[in-house]
Amino acid sequence: MAAIAVATALLFAGPQATLAMSTLRPQKFSGNLMRQITRAGRAEVRPTASLRAQASYPTHPSTGSRRVNRGIGGRLGGLRRFSVRAEAAGVEAKVTECEEAQKVFNSDGGKRTKIIEILGGETKVEDWEGKQVTVKGWIRTIRAQKQLAFVEVNDGSTFGGIQVVVNADGLEGGQQKFDELVSKASTGASVGVLGVVVKSPGKGQALEIQCQDIRVIGEVYENDKYPLQKKRHSLEFLRSIAHLRARTNTFAAVARVRASLSQGIHSYFHAMGFKNLHSPIVTASDCEGAGEMFRVTTLDPASPPESKNKSGEAEFYKQDFFDKPAFLTVSGQLSAESYACALGDVYTFGPTFRAENSQTSRHLAEFWMIEPEMAFADIHDAMDNCEGMVRAAAKSAMDDCAEDLAFFGKFYEKGLQKRLDLITNKPFKKIEYTKAVELLKEEIAKDPSKWEYPEVKFGTDLATEHERWICEKWGKGAATFVYNYPRDIKAFYMRDNDDGKTVAAFDLLVPGVGELAGGSQREERMDVLTKKMQEFDLIEQDYWWYIDLRKST
């Protein structure tokens, strides 16, 4: 059995901040809706919903209240109440008691067109020129004159927005409507635009929208204090407004690239016949054997229960929810192995947690990890699978997110496009750990002062500078596998090699980063496995099922 683990902390790694953007508060349903539909053939539900943006701006000086930016998600046109009537022959949605803004939201009666459909890489000018479209998004910039305004609208579907040209003479409502628009529209406001796609005489994009009707769906109050203006903001500043940072070029691009990478990974494994699994997030197992795990408990730390006998911890945890110590998972690997012994090839792709008290970008408290498990496979099969997956993911991002990657290459990582080209087009190299250490020692001996960690020997856990030298200098820019690592620096489940000193494990190193992925052939010999668990101070009883798999294979 062989497996790979890939941490998907792409490009920008750091603690993730989240903020609920809106809340939906429906009335409680009486019973299960789908069960009512199935049994009765008809069900009617009338919940009351209130959608409000949670992001707020500085306290108003006179009232002490907080101004709310309706453009962030706002009230979505003031939807007050809706009813849903489900019938066996079909589903009919009926909207009732809507305010004027909700009517405006769908006033054109047409389907919303995403900007990427108009400006996408494969789009031809003649495909869209002269077509009437409805575009909805947020204002990036607005330049207004007496009767003419140029509004850049972005809906998040692509890196750049589309220019909307608003002429008072051609606008439904004329000059009065134009003046009203200019007074309400500002950076950050959400708008709905109805117009005709025309060729753009300006530079930067081939098409623009000649506006016929435009409505402000959610305006920004106190727009002079809206924090995202047309300038470059530091990542430190954006951390302080986490609820808005997704609107910036950087974080929107990160989100699109990550989405494309995820899709590429799922597509690759699906094409290879792997089954996707969802492993437990709360677990009693320490997969890595490191002990750096977040504890999960329902006990009150302010008044923990007292043990009443000499059993100590066991008695203590009898009062906890799980009746034993429980943690957030550091890996879904062990669970995936049990399914690989039944389904053949499987993979997990989910959140993992590490309680490592480190402030570097290489150590995250929470991240998503990909963990394939393959039956009837060795370390070479695992490396081949890893290479195919990384290529597929990179190609997916390059195909879908060319503008985003160009932005990263310009402002964050020079040469990014070239490195991605090498990953997708150049064969990966391989080198044994022992040989890599010998080469490093020779290179470091030339000038030890250039190295932060000049001491390298067999058993050294390679640092990032060592990894980058291997793939960038020795590998000449190619992604490089280092394999057969010392057993003492790797996990208990990795298969011992015949030399007694190394295990069948590998790391994939890529230029500019260092280690990107790691994997190994699993130890299938029960006697060897149990002996290694003792060496790692693991309690066999906690892994009884993992050992039992070796009895049944």
Describe this structure in words.
The protein is α+β, with helices and mostly antiparallel strands and 553 residues long. The chain contains 16 helices and 21 strands. The strands form 5 sheets. It has an 8-stranded mixed beta sheet with strand order 12-16-17-1-21-20-19-18. Helix 10 crosses helix 12. The termini are close together. About 18% of the residues have low confidence.
Poorly predicted segments: 8-105
- Helix amount: 25-40%
Arithmetic mean of pLDDT: 80
> How many angstroms does the end-to-end distance come to?
11 Å
H/I helix tally = 16
Q: What is the overall silhouette?
A: elongated
Put the structure in a nutshell.
The chain has 553 residues and is of the alpha+beta class. Helices cover 29% and strands 24% of the residues.
Descriptive key words:
single chain, 553 residues, alpha+beta, 16 helices
List the helices and strands and how they pair.
Layout: E1 2-7, H1 33-40, E2 42-45, E3 56-59, E4 66-68, E5 81-87, E6 90-96, H2 100-105, H3 115-119, H4 125-128, E7 132-144, E8 148-154, E9 162-167, H5 174-184, E10 190-199, E11 207-218, H6 235-239, H7 249-271, E12 275-277, E13 282-283, E14 295-296, H8 313-317, E15 326-328, H9 333-343, E16 345-353, E17 366-374, H10 379-400, H11 402-411, H12 416-425, E18 429-432, H13 433-446, H14 464-474, E19 480-486, E20 502-510, E21 514-521, H15 526-535, H16 544-551
Parallel strand pairs: 9-11, 12-16, 18-19
Antiparallel strand pairs: 1-17, 1-21, 2-5, 3-4, 5-6, 7-8, 7-10, 8-9, 10-11, 13-15, 14-15, 16-17, 19-20, 20-21
